[in-house]
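Q: What residues go here?
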């Protein structure tokens, strides 16, 4: 790294809120323990110069990929372990990060942190591997405990809002801005164009759809990782509330003067979206970018996945998880396969052409067209 980097501070304890305000050249100041891959990629996309994290970016608790992605992309990541300092940096402060980890705020020495490098990250990965079995056991126990409390999800003891969007007997695609969501949406483009499923964006999933020129029909969530543009795109809005009455996204939706419905269910916003589609009569639910495994949930800071387990148990017979679908087949058509296909197709035509002058002309035209097609492969 250079001797130092300089930028204006963009400050927030929630990385997903910070990313919405970050501008190229800023220094991101956050509190994000065990930075996940999606957050890292969004920080890179925002073109911040560096990251100051007042939580361990990689604790060694599990194999989170975020720090390695940031360091490999050339971003400067500095962890500060001293308590009480986060609130002393304000939005817009001028920050200088030296290559020895010293942080200068508004031309005054502030503190010294740990600059993450590949060797440090590797050591934490080794630590995480040693902790893996204990972490899995703890996660499983927590999941079972939560299942006892959240089992009402199976009994439908909650109200489902009536929406203008008709989902009866239709395909519904639920999009979360999770790992590989871009690649998976691209892989499903032809499916979307042909089937025209109802599109549900879960929080930032609405922005993910807009990236591809797709307008969500419904937006579900806490509304903390979606842009104002996404909220104002014209989709129906369903605010995720909890059984105790808390609805973190309600104030923002009201402030923007938007119409909304509320659905109060224990669990994640992804769970709410699946239950909404299921109870609205969806014929098939296709998910993109959703969180389905232990690492996904640990990266999101959850200690168990009871609600997700129960929801998928309930809707599983109409659920298709498209996560990673882009990896199923990436190769181009091989020339020998193409040659075999053409030979199989032309053999009966050659027999016909021997006894039909009109067929001869048609085959000549077909051969010219195939040659043109091959030229574009």
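A:
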């Amino acid at each position: 790294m250079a001797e130092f980097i300089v930028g204006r501070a963009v400050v927030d304890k929630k990385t997903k809120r910070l990313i919405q305000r970050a501008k190229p050249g800023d220094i991101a100041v956050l509190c994000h323990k065990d930075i996940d891959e999606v957050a890292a990629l969004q920080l890179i996309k925002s073109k911040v110069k560096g990251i100051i994290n007042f939580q361990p970016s990689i604790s060694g608790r599990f194999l989170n990929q975020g720090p390695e992605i940031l360091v490999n992309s050339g971003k400067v990541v500095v962890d500060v372990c001293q308590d009480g300092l986060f609130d002393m940096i304000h939005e817009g402060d001028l920050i200088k990060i030296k290559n020895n980890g010293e942080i200068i705020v508004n031309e005054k020495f502030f503190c010294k942190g740990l600059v993450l490098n590949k060797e440090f990250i590797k050591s934490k990965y080794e630590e995480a591997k040693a902790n893996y079995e204990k972490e899995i056991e703890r996660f499983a126990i927590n999941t079972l405990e939560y299942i006892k409390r959240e089992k009402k999800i199976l009994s439908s003891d909650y109200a489902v809002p009536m929406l203008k969007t008709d989902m009866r007997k239709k395909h519904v695609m639920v999009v979360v801005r999770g790992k590989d969501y871009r690649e998976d949406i691209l892989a499903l483009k032809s499916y979307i164009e042909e089937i025209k499923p109802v599109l549900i964006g879960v929080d930032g999933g609405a922005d993910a759809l807009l990236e591809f020129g797709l307008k969500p029909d419904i937006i579900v969530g806490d509304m903390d990782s979606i842009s104002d543009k996404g909220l104002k795109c014209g989709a129906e809005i369903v605010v995720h509330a909890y059984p105790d009455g808390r609805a973190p996204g309600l104030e923002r939706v009201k402030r923007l003067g938007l119409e909304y419905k509320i659905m109060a269910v224990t669990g994640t916003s992804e769970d709410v979206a699946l239950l909404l589609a299921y109870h609205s009569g969806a014929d098939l639910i296709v998910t993109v970018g959703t969180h389905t495994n232990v690492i996904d949930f640990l990266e999101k800071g959850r200690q168990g996945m009871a609600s997700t387990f129960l929801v998928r148990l309930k809707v599983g017979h109409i659920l298709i998880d498209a996560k990673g679908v882009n990896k199923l087949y990436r190769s181009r058509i091989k020339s020998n396969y193409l040659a075999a296909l053409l030979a199989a197709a032309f053999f009966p035509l050659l027999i016909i052409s021997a006894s039909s002058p009109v067929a001869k002309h048609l085959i000549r035209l077909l051969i010219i067209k195939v040659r043109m097609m091959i030229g574009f492969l």
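A: Context that may help when evaluating the design: The longest helix spans residues 118-150. The chain has a mean pLDDT of 84.
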